[in-house]
Amino acid sequence: MFDTLQDRLASVFKGLRSKGRLTEADIDATMREIRIALLEADVNLGVVKEFVTAVKTRALEAELSKALNPSQQVIKIVNEELVAILGGEARPIRFAKKPPTVIMLAGLQGAGKTTLAGKLARWLKSEKHTPLLVAADLQRPNAVQQLQIVGERAGVHVYAPEPGNGVGDPIEVARGSIAHAEAKLYDVVIVDTAGRLGVDAELMQQAADIKAAVTPHETLFVVDAMIGQDAVNTAKAFDEGVGVDGVVLTKLDGDARGGAALSIARVLGKPIMFASNGEALADFDMFHPDRMASRILG
Ligand code: GDP
């Protein structure tokens, strides 16, 4: 993950280590290299500019203190600013005071929503919750079956369309699932919704209608990190069309560059809440900006 960026930053810092004291010209040169490294990693240009300005301002100020050696000072500042653009602090799920907490998943087809639904359910179960998975993706022929398989692997019940649950109508299924959760005392309802290959009006409308029907406590936008800046653009479209509370990045294990991860929280102004790192249900955790920054800095 983020191999090139890691290597580039490591070599920038290596060059600094030999210097006893940093001049403004040294700092400028370092900033240029960091800027190129971030742009090559496909980080949003606005985010890059903001990041470089913040690091440079602090580096110039920090030079005066001379508390640590210069390269350590720069690494510390870069680390802190990386944490800031990644969202600062981890953002946990806001559980409803009165259960069930409703979590709606939205995103494009293939983003990893169904897999993520299973991962989230498994994780919630390990945190002593009683989640219910809801198959409200009735677009893809085998989406319901796929969620049932995922639910079985996670050991979590799946509420699916059938007579009485609303056959063929995702809004009815979603609505019915809330009543079912209340009756059967499930404390978290995870609603998997349909995706399309691209953003379209019909997809947005359906997601918005499901949202209106179930009033989720958290609407999570699930996105494949490997699509880079397209992830950021799609997130913006969903936020405008449906309204999202947080982002889940999937396929971070295959994301060699890191552009989406390093841009999306800042551009969208919404936190990355979870990260998905593989096809197995256990490859999942809350997203911790500080841990991610440490990984990038190696
Ligand atoms: P959906 O269309 O949004 O429901 O997406 P799926 O959950 O069906 O996932 C699409 C594909 O991506 C499947 O082949 C998943 O196994 C795969 N996938 C999902 N999450 C991850 C992940 O974090 N890492 C990797 N490598 N593959 C993933």
Automatic annotation (TrEMBL):
Domain SRP54-type proteins GTP-binding span(s) in chain numbering: 271-284
What is the first-listed, main subcellular location in coarse terms? cytoplasm
Complex formation:
Part of the signal recognition particle protein translocation system, which is composed of SRP and FtsY.
Give the UniProt family note: Belongs to the GTP-binding SRP family. SRP54 subfamily.
* Range covered out of full length: 1 to 298 of 515
Q: Tell me the gene name.
A: ffh
Q: What is known of its domains?
A: Composed of three domains: the N-terminal N domain, which is responsible for interactions with the ribosome, the central G domain, which binds GTP, and the C-terminal M domain, which binds the RNA and the signal sequence of the RNC.
- Residue numbers binding GTP: 107-114, 192-196, 250-253
Which reaction equation describes what this protein catalyses?
A: GTP + H2O = GDP + phosphate + H(+)
Could you tell me where this protein is found in the cell? Cytoplasm
| UniProt keywords, alphabetically | Cytoplasm, GTP-binding, Hydrolase, Nucleotide-binding, Ribonucleoprotein, RNA-binding, Signal recognition particle
Q: What is this protein called?
A: Signal recognition particle protein
Q: Supply the EC number(s).
A: 3.6.5.4
Role this protein plays: Involved in targeting and insertion of nascent membrane proteins into the cytoplasmic membrane. Binds to the hydrophobic signal sequence of the ribosome-nascent chain (RNC) as it emerges from the ribosomes. The SRP-RNC complex is then targeted to the cytoplasmic membrane where it interacts with the SRP receptor FtsY.
Question: What domain of life does the native source organism fall in?
Answer: Bacteria
